[in-house]
Amino acid sequence: MKIRTFINEFEKFAPKELAEPGDPIGLQIGDLNAEFSKVLVTLDVRPEVVTEAIEQHCDLIFAHHPAMFRSAHNLDLPVPQNKMYAEILKHNITVYAAHSNLDAADNGMNDWLAEKIGLQHTERLLDGYVDQNHHQFGMGRIGLLDQAMSVLTFARLIKQRFELQGLRIITQDPQQEISRVAVLGGDGGKYFKQALKKGADVYVTGDVYYHTGHDMLAAGLTAIDPGHNVEKICIPKLATLFRSWQLTTDNQIQVFESQVDTNPFTFI
What we know:
This protein is α/β, with parallel strands linked by helices.
C-alpha cells in the first residue's frame, strides 16, 4: 500500500486544517508515494527511534512531534540531527508528523489526556478551526473530576496515572479543593487565561515558564506541570486507531509501538 493512502485515511481523523499556523506538520522526510508494510508510531523522532525503525524494517515513522521544527542550514553529518536525517534517507524511511492537528482533533490527544486524568463532561478549552459543517475544533479540554479533591491529592493522582518520577505544582494553597480541571498537552502555559475564563480550578499543562508561573499565581490559578512527555499516550492510542482500520488489515500493515524513552529529563 502507498503511504499516501494511509495518510489520507489519517487526515480524515485529524485534518491538516486543524493545525496551528506555522506548525510544520505532515511529510517531514521521504516519499508519500512509496509503498510500505510496517509503520513505527512514536512521540519523538530521535536517533534511537530511527535505529529502532531500522531494526524493525519499518518503512514509515509516524510521529506526534515534527522531526524538523527548525530547518537544517547544512547537512554536516557529524551533527547528530543531520546524521539522523542521513540514516532516514539511507534506509528509505518516510517520516510523517501529526502535531497540533492531532491536539485539536475530536477523540485526539487532548481527549486522551482528559480521559487518563478522569475528566467528565468535557468541552473544548480553545476554539480553533471550523469545518464546512460548522463544526468547531480546538486544542485543550476542560471538565469535571468524579469527586472534588485537594490540589496535592490531584497532583499525586496525575503522577501515578502517568507514571512520572516527579512534576511541578504552581499553587498558593496545596490543600485547595478543586473539581474543574483544564488540560492541554505539550507547552500550553500561554493559554492559562483561557483556562481561567472557562472557570478552571486547576490547569494541567507542560513546560510552564518561570514568569508565566508567577502570572498564574497572581491571577489565582493553580497549575500542575507534568512535563511534555505525557503526550507519549499517543503511541498506544494511535497504534490502536491504525490497527482498527480495515485498510490496515486488508493490506497486512504491521504497526509497531516505539519502546524508546525519549524523555530528556531525569529526576533525582
